[in-house]
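Hi V.,

Quick status before I head out on leave. The structure for the redesign project is tokenized and pasted below; the design run finished overnight.
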């Protein structure tokens, strides 16, 4: 993360994760730098977060590694590097721990706490099956649905019951039918977490959990409305009551930054990284990450990197591959490419301005789409407006 400041400022660190304070295999003091670290240190009007900062000498840049959890630098999905200007034109790299990407969105809490305020650029790399400077990580909304019915004996007097399992099954099937009218880039997937107690009791309570994904917040807003209608229809058909509760944080889609991507690819190629084609990038889909929310606040780069295995993410085989010695070469090579890109931004003011302009244009485009989606969803639009979308 890059920040410019004309005044000297003591770096602060606020709590929330585990930090590996090392560059390569060297401890920071072995490199002749002075380390400041504050766990659960507080600033006025700020929530605690954790970081490690390496102030530089007047004529040089200092570096630090930022990670969430105990994974090696550059390999964990939460690893990022922050570069700050604490004096005029004196760069400084700070490591910021970003835990809880998979559940809750730790980076969103850090955004709200001010951890990304006044920064210029953010970097993060994610392991994958290929090398790409950018993949279209999509917006995501998770929802928990609870149906409340009435228990009764399933054989003796089933007519006295209100079947919450029927509501859950209908909701699941409603979504299956909806898929025919879903855009190819939309995704809906979920599970029935609670389907009843015993076969001879009409279930009085069921619970489902679903993830909804779309390429933009605008599309996600439209998809969410359609899916919630499916849940409500199931309750109406069975006579159940329904409770629909969204997750704490929506994950935004990652905004691309072409200037950062171009420089990163140039640096990566110098290190022997072979990137997938632009067609594969444009036609491919990825998952979702709270880093997307960060890219709505500050320009960001979120490349993917090969770790020497064709195993798929979120599998036991990938977990084993990610912890292997072979993967460390690819992780460190990616970290080097990120560091080289950071140096380019630091020492090339024109590049930084291009990065900022890319960010401004993408932000305007995305916010314009989101505002239009909110207008479309105003009460009174009716079925006709829904059909037109």
């Amino acid at each position: 993360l890059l920040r410019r400041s004309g005044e000297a400022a003591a770096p602060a660190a606020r709590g929330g994760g585990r930090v590996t304070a090392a560059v390569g295999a060297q401890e920071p003091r072995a490199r002749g730098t002075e380390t400041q670290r504050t766990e659960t240190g507080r600033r006025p009007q700020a929530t605690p977060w954790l970081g490690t900062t390496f102030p530089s000498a007047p004529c040089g840049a200092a570096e630090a590694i930022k990670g969430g959890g105990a994974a090696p630098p550059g390999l964990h999905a939460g690893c990022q590097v922050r570069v700050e200007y604490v004096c005029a034109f004196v760069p400084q790299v700070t490591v910021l721990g970003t835990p809880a990407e998979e559940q809750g969105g730790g980076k969103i809490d850090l955004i709200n706490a001010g951890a990304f305020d006044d920064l210029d650029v953010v970097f993060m790399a994610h392991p994958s099956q290929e090398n790409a400077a950018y993949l279209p990580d999509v917006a995501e909304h998770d929802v928990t649905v609870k149906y409340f019915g009435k228990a009764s004996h399933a054989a003796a007097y089933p007519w006295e019951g209100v079947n919450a399992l029927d509501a859950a099954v209908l909701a699941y099937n409603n979504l299956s039918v909806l898929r025919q009218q879903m855009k190819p880039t939309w995704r809906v997937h979920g599970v029935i977490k609670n389907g009843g107690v015993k076969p001879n009791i009409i279930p009085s309570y069921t619970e489902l959990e679903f993830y909804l994904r779309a390429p933009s917040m605008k599309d996600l807003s439209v998809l969410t409305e359609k899916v919630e209608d499916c849940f409500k229809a199931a309750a109406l058909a069975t006579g159940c009551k329904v409770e629909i509760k969204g997750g704490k944080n929506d994950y935004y889609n990652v905004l691309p930054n072409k200037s950062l991507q171009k420089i990163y690819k140039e640096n990566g190629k110098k290190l022997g990284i072979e990137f997938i084609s632009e067609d594969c990038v444009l036609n491919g889909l990825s998952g979702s990450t709270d880093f997307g929310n960060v890219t709505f606040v500050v320009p960001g780069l979120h490349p993917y990197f090969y770790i020497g295995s064709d195993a798929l993410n979120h599998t036991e085989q990938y977990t084993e591959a990610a912890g292997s010695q072979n993967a460390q070469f690819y992780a460190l090579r990616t970290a080097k490419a990120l560091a080289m890109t950071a140096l380019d931004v630091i020492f090339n003011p024109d590049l930084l301005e291009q990065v900022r302009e890319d960010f401004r244009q993408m932000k305007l485009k995305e916010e314009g789409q989101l505002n239009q989606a909110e207008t479309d969803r105003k009460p009174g639009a009716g079925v006709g407006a829904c059909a037109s979308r």
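Above is the designed sequence. The domain at 139-251 is CATH 3.30.70.360 (Alpha-Beta Plaits).

G. will cover questions while I'm gone.

Best,
W.
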